Amino acid sequence: MLVTITGAAGSIGSALLPGLSAAGHDVRGIDLVAPSESSEWADRVTVADIGSDDEALAAAMDGADAVVHLAAVPHETDFETAIDTHLRLTHRVLEAARAAGVRRVVYASSNHAVGFTARGSQLSDLVRPRPDTYYGVGKVAAEALCSLFCDRYDMEVACLRIGSFLPRPTTRRNLCTWLSPGDAVRLVDTCLTTPKLGFTVLYGISGNTRAWWDLAPARALGYEPQDDAEQWAEEFEATPETETDQLDGAFVGGEFTRLHLEDER
């Protein structure tokens, strides 16, 4: 497939460019910033602002079979910025994809869409949205927009509620929420190649022994994670659990549930 990646110079995009290529796809990207000068994929990434450059966005969609939409501000912001970077930007990408005849979209949502859900049994994709920040609100709103485009325009969209995308776990919480670069590629590739996608919400994590989210829907589509954060468990359990560890484990959104919103500061 010819796959366009927005936000291709970011951390996830930088893993998907070579990873999806190795999986057999033809990939190209677009981002507001250029990839690292050392990146061998620099010539595959167009530097442009998809939030305002209609021509560049249309060109990125032209001829593509699918789009992976990663572009966004990847942290908490004020309300207006959250709505702009998640909802408005996602609308521009979906509309450009629809106009170009691109029917399959993979959207990078976030676990913070359900961040205020208390820890308990593994969460399914049917749990109600409980965003923990304006960032989470933006992701929930964009998921709803993806649903609209699926129902109204017969597009196929996967919303990936990504956990903690890191080279390796760095906290106790990551033992439950980690998504390895390799498994990120496998999950996105699954969404690109599964025969029937429809509108799907999936949790983006590796096959972690202590997973907080249910991977059954992703596995049903063909996702076979190969990594597990448990290999680092002894390292974190060698020291006593801290109050911060306990707070981060109370809700699935971790520290985001304790961030001040812009209007509270």
Q: Care to give the gist of this entry?
A:
The protein is 36% helix and 16% strand. It is α/β, with parallel strands linked by helices and 265 residues long.
CATH class category:
Alpha Beta
Radius of gyration computed on alpha carbons: 18 Å
Order of helices and strands: EHEEHEHEHEEHEHEHHH
The CATH homologous superfamily is called NAD(P)-binding Rossmann-like Domain
What is the name of the CATH topology?
Rossmann fold
For the biggest sheet, the summary is:
7 strands, parallel
Query: Tally the helices: what do you get?
Result: 9
Mean pLDDT: 95
Q: Give the strand line-up of the largest sheet.
A: 3-2-1-4-5-6-9
**Beta-strand fraction estimate:** 15-25%
Coarse structural class: alpha/beta
Tertiary shape:
globular
Number of strands: 9
The total number of structural domains is 1
Helix content: 25-40%
State the end-to-end distance: 46 Å
Catalogue the unreliable spans.
none
- The assigned CATH architecture is 3-Layer(aba) Sandwich
